[in-house]
């Protein structure tokens, strides 16, 4: 690209970088009629959210630049077509209720992607862990009648909410209410709160022992909580709680009570529960649970896994956990194709696909993308590019913490003045394992009513469940996001395991990841003939992420001589390090957009011409 | 997958991503327009960014192939976009204009890039377009058929001389590609898997939701 001169030297906006946020801003501003130049000094799209082939990963590993460090790759098995893979640095989960999906639906962009469902959450729980209980808590401070609550919930579960659309059980006299269930099914999930009130007159009485008996007798049907070796499916609906064979009646009560508590917290008008949350906002998740809902330790780990938070339950703030759990619980049961699922993943590289589709959206609406070109100097509205070209722009959007695109910092004092004190960051160790088996058991339907199987799954290793050769045990959970080949990321008889943990390399982070992957292969990958699948390729790396609030660092370059300095630099913060797509992304991009365009209205909306083309394709 | 393999079913359906590459004005968009809508336009505007279209063809009584077609813009300014389009592509049509010899050089450069960067088992076809012009006036020919054919053979490409204007060889070009694509053994980034891998339908979900909200 170095030889290529730009068709114009005057731009409305220069966007530096092709990660998720710069790409979204680029296409949104371009669709708003602005003349956008999107640059990236890298030779590929996606920046820190990109996806690589094996060849590219190996190349990338050779010269790690912040926010990446300690990158290592290893080819173990035979790889016949290394360029055929699409391995994601950001295989984000996208919750059904996320603001990203809301935006994409609004602008009719969902069909630009292939979506696969994330199936169940599995927790690694060896037998001894199942016995463990915390020292008895105080209990019952908030809980009015746990057991009664879950009974009522299980009895009315057909009424919609978290369990809507699920296959009914014969003991819960369903047919009489089938039509009611159908009409309720389209209502918003918050309805479920209502169903918690004492069961209606026609709700049949079901005793807990009935539920348990039923659960055991129908366990093989696959519609109750499943077990894969030592991995247990996480109970996350009232039905799961009612039917889990691993729970004792009193646990069922507590767990049901906690789920009910979460539903109330999800309602911003429920003053009592907002207050409880407020009061306990700094309390740890495990402390709160063991005092209010004294559940077995494994249940706490199990529930915590649904949060996808990297901190151990004892260091996870209640408010963060509750927030994440509400997201999960309000999403589950809403996907028409697969009711047992709460989240989706974008095929062909997760968030990398977003960066590609959005970057090319910039071009389609008249902008220009140039790879292999960065910025070396910004003075006012005048920008010097890495090939020496000088252009001007009214606005310049640059990533905040990204040295590859940050050649500006060593230049003019005007730009240096804009660099505020850096926010704190957090590092996670990650790995990408290519597996020689499709790991089919992870990608089978949970419910008979699921029209499609999931093609992703989450596995969690709770604190203390893994051990290194040096005898260290993991002090934080280790997560694995498993992807089947239907994500387009690997070959048909393969799968990809993406791991993530906050335990750093020096504390055994990489070893824990390997140990976790080995567990999965031994327990889920074995084909029954005693052969265990192997890891064909692995890439391990450490990545630094921003933490803290979502406010963009907005710096207007207004000096005394305003006439001279027209340029405005906006610093764009990177995405957070969560396993789910950073919920603040859309809103923070809208804020930047508003700053430039004057309103958030119309963000990413199709132009008239695009609408016509879209309708044409729809007609086909 | 818990599903029967596509090959054991009586009906086979495969979906492939196809990308068109080549210099500006060689007729990429015209070829697609002919293939998808059986139309031709003497005054086509140069493509901005890229255009997306789909076309389904029946290979035989039991096999249907759907092409997701990315028609890229040939102008130099869009060069940075190309990698996105050939990423994950199952097949590519590299187009040149048989009345412009420089356009074959450009096509060769694209083939080289594809063979170096794209998926290893990508099926590439070379199309020498605007055949109607030389049929009318042989002196307009700038690239000899034998020359291009020899190159295609050496590089392992399918080869056709086409006319988007008269439709000559256009259908044959796409059919030949479909026949060469591996229907049963999709590799990485290969044919989209059958029912077992169909993605989540978000539109259905959206329609259902809108109904829910509008009441
Ligand atoms: N005679 C003749 N003219 C053709 C043929 N195919 C395309 N053209 C004409 O060539 C011109 C360019 O065609 P396009 O299809 O727009 O070319 P393109 O390759 O898509 O160009 P870009 O979008 O700029 O990359 C148009 O005026 C077409 O009418 C053909 O087969 N025969
Ligand atoms: Mg065109």
Automatic annotation (TrEMBL), chain A:
<comment type="similarity">
    <text>Belongs to the Rab GDI family.</text>
</comment>
<protein>
    <submittedName>
        <fullName>Similar to Rab proteins geranylgeranyltransferase component A 1 acc. no. P24386</fullName>
    </submittedName>
</protein>
<dbReference type="GO" id="GO:0016740">
    <property type="term" value="F:transferase activity"/>
</dbReference>
<dbReference type="InterPro" id="IPR018203">
    <property type="entry name" value="GDP_dissociation_inhibitor"/>
</dbReference>
<dbReference type="GO" id="GO:0005092">
    <property type="term" value="F:GDP-dissociation inhibitor activity"/>
</dbReference>
<feature type="compositionally biased region" description="Low complexity">
    <location>
        <begin position="411"/>
        <end position="422"/>
    </location>
</feature>
<dbReference type="GO" id="GO:0016192">
    <property type="term" value="P:vesicle-mediated transport"/>
</dbReference>
<feature type="region of interest" description="Disordered">
    <location>
        <begin position="401"/>
        <end position="422"/>
    </location>
</feature>
<feature type="region of interest" description="Disordered">
    <location>
        <begin position="162"/>
        <end position="204"/>
    </location>
</feature>
<dbReference type="GO" id="GO:0005634">
    <property type="term" value="C:nucleus"/>
</dbReference>
<dbReference type="GO" id="GO:0005968">
    <property type="term" value="C:Rab-protein geranylgeranyltransferase complex"/>
</dbReference>
<dbReference type="Pfam" id="PF00996">
    <property type="entry name" value="GDI"/>
</dbReference>
<keyword id="KW-0808">Transferase</keyword>
<dbReference type="GO" id="GO:0007264">
    <property type="term" value="P:small GTPase-mediated signal transduction"/>
</dbReference>
<feature type="compositionally biased region" description="Low complexity">
    <location>
        <begin position="177"/>
        <end position="195"/>
    </location>
</feature>
<dbReference type="GO" id="GO:0005829">
    <property type="term" value="C:cytosol"/>
</dbReference>
<dbReference type="InterPro" id="IPR036188">
    <property type="entry name" value="FAD/NAD-bd_sf"/>
</dbReference>
Automatic annotation (TrEMBL), chain B:
<keyword id="KW-0813">Transport</keyword>
<comment type="similarity">
    <text>Belongs to the small GTPase superfamily. Rab family.</text>
</comment>
<dbReference type="GO" id="GO:0005886">
    <property type="term" value="C:plasma membrane"/>
</dbReference>
<dbReference type="GO" id="GO:0016192">
    <property type="term" value="P:vesicle-mediated transport"/>
</dbReference>
<dbReference type="GO" id="GO:0015031">
    <property type="term" value="P:protein transport"/>
</dbReference>
<keyword id="KW-0342">GTP-binding</keyword>
<dbReference type="Pfam" id="PF00071">
    <property type="entry name" value="Ras"/>
</dbReference>
<protein>
    <submittedName>
        <fullName>Similar to GTP-binding protein ypt5 acc. no. P36586</fullName>
    </submittedName>
</protein>
<dbReference type="GO" id="GO:0005768">
    <property type="term" value="C:endosome"/>
</dbReference>
<keyword id="KW-0547">Nucleotide-binding</keyword>
<keyword id="KW-1003">Cell membrane</keyword>
<dbReference type="InterPro" id="IPR005225">
    <property type="entry name" value="Small_GTP-bd"/>
</dbReference>
<dbReference type="InterPro" id="IPR001806">
    <property type="entry name" value="Small_GTPase"/>
</dbReference>
<keyword id="KW-0472">Membrane</keyword>
<dbReference type="GO" id="GO:0016050">
    <property type="term" value="P:vesicle organization"/>
</dbReference>
<dbReference type="GO" id="GO:0005525">
    <property type="term" value="F:GTP binding"/>
</dbReference>
<dbReference type="GO" id="GO:0003924">
    <property type="term" value="F:GTPase activity"/>
</dbReference>
<keyword id="KW-0449">Lipoprotein</keyword>
<keyword id="KW-0653">Protein transport</keyword>
<keyword id="KW-0636">Prenylation</keyword>
<dbReference type="InterPro" id="IPR027417">
    <property type="entry name" value="P-loop_NTPase"/>
</dbReference>
């Amino acid at each position: 690209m170095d030889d290529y001169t730009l068709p114009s030297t005057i731009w409305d906006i220069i966007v530096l970088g092709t990660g998720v946020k710069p790409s979204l801003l680029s296409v949104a501003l371009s669709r708003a009629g602005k003349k956008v130049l999107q640059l990236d000094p890298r030779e590929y799209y996606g920046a820190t959210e990109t996806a690589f082939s094996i060849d590219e990963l190996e190349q990338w590993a050779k010269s790690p630049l912040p926010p990446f460090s300690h990158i290592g790759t290893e080819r173990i098995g035979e790889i016949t077509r290394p360029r055929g893979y699409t391995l994601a640095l950001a295989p984000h989960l996208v919750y059904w209720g996320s603001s990203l999906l809301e935006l994409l639906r609004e602008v009719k962009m969902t069909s630009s992607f292939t979506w696969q469902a994330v199936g169940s959450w599995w927790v690694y729980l060896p037998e001894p862990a199942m016995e463990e209980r915390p020292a008895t808590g105080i209990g019952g401070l908030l809980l009015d009648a746990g057991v009664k609550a879950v009974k009522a919930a299980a009895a009315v579960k057909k009424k919609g909410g978290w369990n809507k659309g699920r296959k009914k059980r014969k003991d819960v006299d369903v047919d009489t209410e089938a039509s009611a269930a159908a009409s309720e099914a389209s209502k918003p999930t918050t309805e479920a709160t209502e169903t918690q009130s004492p069961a209606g007159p026609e709700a049949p009485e079901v005793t807990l022992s009935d539920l348990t008996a039923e659960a055991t007798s129908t366990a093989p049907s696959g519609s109750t909580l499943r077990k894969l070796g030592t991995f247990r499916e996480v109970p996350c609906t009232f039905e799961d709680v009612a039917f889990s064979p691993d729970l004792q009646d009193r646990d069922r009560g507590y767990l049901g009570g906690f789920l009910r508590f979460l539903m109330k917290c999800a309602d911003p008008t429920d003053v009592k529960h907002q207050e409880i949350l407020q009061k306990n906002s700094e309390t740890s998740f495990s402390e709160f649970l063991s005092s209010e809902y004294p559940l077995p330790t494994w249940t706490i780990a199990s529930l915590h896994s649904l949060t996808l938070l990297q901190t151990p339950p004892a260091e996870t703030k209640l408010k963060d956990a509750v927030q994440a759990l509400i997201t999960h619980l309000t999403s589950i049961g809403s996907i028409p194709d697969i009711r047992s699922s709460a989240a989706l993943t974008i095929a062909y590289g997760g968030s990398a696909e977003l960066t590609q589709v959005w970057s090319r959206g910039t071009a389609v609406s008249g902008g220009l993308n140039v790879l292999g070109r960065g910025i070396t100097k910004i003075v006012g509205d005048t920008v010097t590019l890495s090939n020496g070209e000088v252009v001007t722009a009214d606005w310049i959007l640059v990533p905040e913490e990204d040295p590859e695109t940050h050649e500006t910092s060593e230049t003019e004092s005007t730009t240096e003045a804009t660099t505020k004190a850096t926010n704190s960051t957090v590092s996670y160790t990650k790995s990408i394992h290519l597996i020689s088996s499709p790991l089919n058991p992870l990608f089978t339907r949970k419910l008979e009513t699921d029209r499609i199987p999931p093609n992703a799954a989450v596995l969690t290793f709770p604190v203390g469940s893994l051990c290194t050769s040096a005898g260290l045990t993991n002090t934080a959970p280790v997560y694995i996001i498993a992807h089947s080949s239907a994500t387009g990321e690997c070959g048909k008889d393969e799968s990809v395991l993406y791991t993530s943990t906050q335990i750093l390399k020096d504390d055994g982070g990489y070893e824990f990841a390997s140990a976790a992957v080995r567990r999965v292969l031994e327990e889920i990958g074995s084909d029954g003939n005693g052969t265990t699948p192997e890891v064909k390729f692995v890439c391990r790396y450490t990545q630094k992420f921003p933490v803290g609030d979502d406010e963009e660092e907005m710096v207007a370059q207004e000096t005394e001589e305003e006439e001279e300095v027209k340029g405005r630099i906006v610093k764009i913060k990177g995405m957070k390090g969560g396993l789910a797509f950073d919920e603040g992304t859309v809103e923070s991009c809208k804020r930047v957009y508003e700053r430039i365009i004057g309103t958030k209205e119309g963000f990413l909306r199709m132009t008239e011409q695009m609408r016509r083309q879209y309708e044409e394709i729809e007609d086909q | 997958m818990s599903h029967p393999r596509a090959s054991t079913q009586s009906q086979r359906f495969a979906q492939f991503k196809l990308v068109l590459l080549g210099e500006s004005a060689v007729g990429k968009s015209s070829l697609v327009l002919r293939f998808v809508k059986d139309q031709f336009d003497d005054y086509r505007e140069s493509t901005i960014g890229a255009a997306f279209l789909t076309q389904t063809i029946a290979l035989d009584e039991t096999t249907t192939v759907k092409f997701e077609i990315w028609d890229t813009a040939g102008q130099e300014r869009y060069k940075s976009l190309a990698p996105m389009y050939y990423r994950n592509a199952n097949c590519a049509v590299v187009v040149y204009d048989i009345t412009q010899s420089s356009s074959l050089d450009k096509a060769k450069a694209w083939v080289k890039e594809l063979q170096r960067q794209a998926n290893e088992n990508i099926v590439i076809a070379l199309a020498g377009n605007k055949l109607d012009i030389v049929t009318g006036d042989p002196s307009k020919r700038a690239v000899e058929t034998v020359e291009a054919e020899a190159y295609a053979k050496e590089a392992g490409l399918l080869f056709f001389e086409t006319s988007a204007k008269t439709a000559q060889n256009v259908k044959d070009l796409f059919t030949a590609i479909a026949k060469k694509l591996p229907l049963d053994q999709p590799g990485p980034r290969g044919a989209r898997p059958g029912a077992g891998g169909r993605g989540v339908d978000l539109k259905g979900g959206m329609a259902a939701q809108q109904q829910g909200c509008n009441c």
